[in-house]
Amino acid sequence: MTTKEKILNDIRQNLPKREKVAHPEIPTFEKEGVDLLATFKKNLEIAAGKWHEVNSIEEAQEIVKKEFPDAKVICSVTDEWQGNKPIGSINHPQDLADVDLGIIRAEFGVAEMGMVWLTEKDLKVNAIGFLSQHLIILLDPNKLTENMHTAYHKLDLMGIKYGNFMMGPSATADIEATLVHGAQGARSLTVFFLPEA
Questions:
Q1: What does the pLDDT profile of the chain (197 residues) look like in tens digits?
Q2: Which of 58, 95, 114, 119 qualifies as a cystine partner to 43, CB 3.0-4.6 A?
Q3: What PANTHER family does UniProt report for this protein, alphabetically (predicted)?
Q4: Quick check: is 95 in a domain?
């Protein structure tokens, strides 16, 4: 053993024993008695979104026919709602540029922000969330979480390639403080509270 090795070995033997320390707990800041559905609705409205509670896809479709009578191209990403532009026929994101209504089932919603979590599994083609003129989001009212802290506990970021929180329609304000909806994305966002089958 060289002198250097002996010195290093002596140092190692005399170092204080280290124990693994647990990461500090991060609170989720949950509040008692929060009505998640009412909170979600209120915050969605603040973000210029709309909502409807429905009992069936057929009920939702009737509302959509009344609210969007001019919608011609409907692309649904969920098997629950049939559109006339199959998502499986999309070869390029720009093929969705003519979509009037994009129909998506969200994984869950965040009450404090009135927003939904969408991944590539929900969107199939990410551009549907941004190129559709109007978005229809199907959301199970039992899949609401209180805030962003609780939302992050629900995410499986290692199991996805893409994910985003979507809140209300696209909104842009210019230097003159003129608010424009739909300048860089959907012109409207409507959430239908419908339990998953």
A1: 899 999 999 898 888 887 888 888 888 999 999 999 999 999 999 999 999 999 999 999 999 999 999 999 999 999 999 999 999 999 999 999 999 999 999 999 999 999 999 999 999 999 999 999 999 999 999 999 999 999 999 999 899 999 999 998 887 777 677 777 777 789 999 999 999 98
A2: 114
A3: LACTATE UTILIZATION PROTEIN C
A4: yes
3-state SS of 14-74 is HCCCCCCCCCCCCCCCCCCCCCHHHHHHHHHHHCCCEEEECCCHHHHHHHHHHHCCCCCCE
Which amino acid belongs to residue 9?
Answer: N
Three-state secondary structure call for residue 141: coil
Residue with tokens 């939702």: 60
CA-nearest of 78, 122, 99 to 186 is 99
